[in-house]
Amino acid sequence: MKGLFASLLAVSLLAPAALAQGTARPDAAALYAKYCAECHGKGRLGGVGPALLPGNLRRLHKKRAAKVIARGRVSTQMPAFGDKLGEAEISALVDYIYTPLPRMPVWGKKEIEASRHIPVDVDYSVTKPQFGADPLNLFVVVESGDHHVSILDGDTFRTLARFRSRYALHGGPKFTPDGRYVFFQSRDGWITKYDLYTLDVVAEARAGINTRNIAISADGAVIAVANYLPHNLVLLSADDLSVVKIIPAISADGTSSRVAAVYQARPRHSFVATLKDAPEFWEISTDPKRKEALYEVRRLKLPAIVDDFFFDQSYRHMLGASRDLKGAIVLDVDTGTVIRRLDLPGLPHLGSGITWTWQGRPVMATPHLGEGRISIIAMDTWEVVKTLKTPGPGFFLRSHENTPYAWADVFFGPNKDKMLVIDKRSLEIVKVLNYAPGKTVAHVEFDRHGKHALISVWEQDGAVLVVDANTFEIVKRLPMKKPVGKYNVFNKITFSSGTSH
Ligand code: HEC
To answer: Is residue 41 lining ligand 1, measured as CB closer than 6 Å?
Structure first.
C-alpha cells in the first residue's frame, strides 16, 4: 500500500513539472517584447531592424531565421541571442514572426507623412552633375549583400559614390525623365529619392509596410507604390514624397487585395497595375490634361488573377500570366477583352521580357522560372515563333539596340554559372559563357552605347564584370557585395527595348 501511495504521489507531483518542461510553449509574444521590440518595433513593423512579418520574410527560410536569431549577423546591429535564449524559445520566436498580424496594421497618410524626412535639400541651383562623367551613362548598382548602392561612371567604370541604402531594396529603381533623380524602394516600404547630380539622398518616406514595386509617371511628377501591406496603391509627389493619393486595393466585388505590381504606361499617360488576390486590371490616369480623370481608377475584369505582365511598345496590349492561368493571356487594354490565350508552360517570367525586331516583326522574349526554356513571341500575331531549350530556368534577359545579341542567365540549378548569348537574327543560342565557374552569374545590363555588358557575380563576395559586348572578353572586374541589380540611366529613361521596365 505504502509503495503504491508513494508512486501515485510521485506521479501526481511530477506531472505538472513534466508538463511545464516538455510541452508548454515559451511565451513568444513576451520574449519578443523583451528582446526584439526595441529594434524591430512593438508591432513587428520594423525600426532599426527590418519588419518581422511573414510577407516581408518570405525570402528567408525559417531555419535561417533561427540561425540569425541564435548567432546574430556579423557587422550589423543584429545581436546573437544563443546565450540568452534556448532552442525552444528561439523556435517559438521564429513561429511568432512568421505568423500574420491579428489585424491589418494602419499605415495611412498620417504615418507616411510622419516618416517623411528631407536629409539634404535639393539644390535647384545645381543644373549639371558635380563630377566629370556623362550623367546619362551612369550605372546604379544595388548591392544587397551589405545594403549599399554604388554609382558607377559607365565610361571609365570608376565608382563615383557608394552609400548605405534602406534594408533589402528590391524591384528596379525608377528615374525621372531627365535622368537626374532616382527612386529606390525597399521591401519594408521605404522610398528613397537620390540626386545623381549632387550624389545625395534628398528625400525619404515609408509608403507601406511590405512593398512590391514602384513606378514613376511619364512626366516624372508622381511615384506609384504597389503595396502588399497594407492593401493599397500609394501615389507620392516625386518632388518631396508627400502623399498625393492613397487608393485602397479593393476589387469591384469587395475583395481586399495586395497590389501585384505597378508600371508606367508612358504612351497612355497612366499607371497600370494588377491585383494579386482578385482578377482585376487597373489603369490610373496621370495625364494632367485630363483633370476630371486624374488618378481615377479604370477597372477591367480579368478571366484569372494576373501577377506578372508585359506590354507591347504601344501599351495597347498586355501579355499577362500567373500560376492560376497555366499560360498567358493577351488583353486589349482599350476594349478590356482578352484577344488571345497562349500555351506557355513552365511559368514564364514576363516581367523581365525584352523586345526587338525580327524579320520585320516585333518579337518579345521571356525566360521561364519553372523550366529551362526561353519563349520568343511575335507581338503582331501573339504566336510563339521559337522555343529555346536552356540548361536550366533563367531569371533575366537583356539586350541593347546596338548589339545583335541578347544575354540570358541560367539562374536556377547546377548551371547557374552559365550565361547564354542568343543571336537576335537567327534566334539561336550561339555562345555559352562561363565567367565564374561554380558561382551564380546573372543580370546583364548594357552601357548606353551597347559597347559593354555588365554582369553580376551574384555572391556575397561577388563582383560586377565589365565585358566587351563584341569580343566577350572581361575588361574589368569590380568587387561588389552581392550586386543584385544594375541600371543604366540612359537605357532606363529611353525605355530601351533591350531592358525591362
Ligand atoms: C539592437 C537591435 C536589434 C535587436 C535587439 C534585435 N534585432 Fe533582429 N535585426 C536587427 C538588424 C539591424 C537586422 C538587419 C541585419 C542586416 O543588416 O542583415 C536584424 C535582422 C533580423 C532578422 C533577419 C531578417 C531578414 O529579413 O533577413 C531576424 C529574423 C531578426 N533580426 C530577428 C530578431 C529577433 C527574433 C530578435 C529578438 C530576439 C531580434 N531580431 C532582436 C536588429 C536587432
So the answer is: no
